[in-house]
């Protein structure tokens, strides 16, 4: 992340002053993508994130960030009453970024941190996702190494408006978290989403090990997951992930495995995942990547993914340059 010199400002509290920094970071990609279902085509993408942070006189830290590509979206407000008509309502389209609406989430994240731990709200992971490692290694400009068997560990996040509150606390090699996403929809009586997560990381000889355990619940759905990560000094890394999804989105269980190797500027990796579905079908796939670090924030990326959705096979690929600023 690179600091923008013009963006230092002073925040005025009720009785004290605190200096806050505003940082600007971004990413860009260019290359070519293709695969089943769409023609080979050029790929260009760009993203910008503003991050703000500060410290109070008592040492409390606070901050916020906004991801611009997440915030640019028109919205629909449902059930707006129509004047002079007997209880008639309609859905209306409204412009403007949801990030600047206080009851919606549009790519913004806000936190307060101190000796008590960290409280984060907005576009952040629930405790389930926070705790578990995804079974994937490396990058592709179009995320082609993600496939029908890939699980990003979102769990029940986004069940409602996506505004999540998470508290986390770490001590030594251990950390735990609790999270909630509230039901703000007037037309249903579903329970709020609650989550718990814990993780551990430590060194054992020449190996770094990490363990994650997550749980999330709402109504009659209770999901639980566990992940194990192992990294060795010789550049080999492996990730194993398993989740019991309790029928959420029609999925019963998920298993994922990723293996990668890094040497100098080169990283190569493969991953595999499978969803066992409630109806007895399976969605599975595998992904491959090759990354070469050019230095200075630029990286060559090649990716391939193959998906098998209940016997229907598709694949896709990408090749290009990813840049971070």
Automatic annotation (TrEMBL):
The keyword Signal applies. Residues 7-311 form the Porin domain. It comes from the Bacteria. InterPro entries: Gram_neg_porin_domain, Porin_dom_sf. One of its GO terms (molecular function) is porin activity. Keywords: Signal. GO terms for cellular component: membrane. The keyword Signal applies. Residues 1-20 form the signal peptide. This is Porin. It comes from Profundibacterium mesophilum KAUST100406-0324. The lineage of its organism: Bacteria, Pseudomonadati, Pseudomonadota, Alphaproteobacteria, Rhodobacterales.
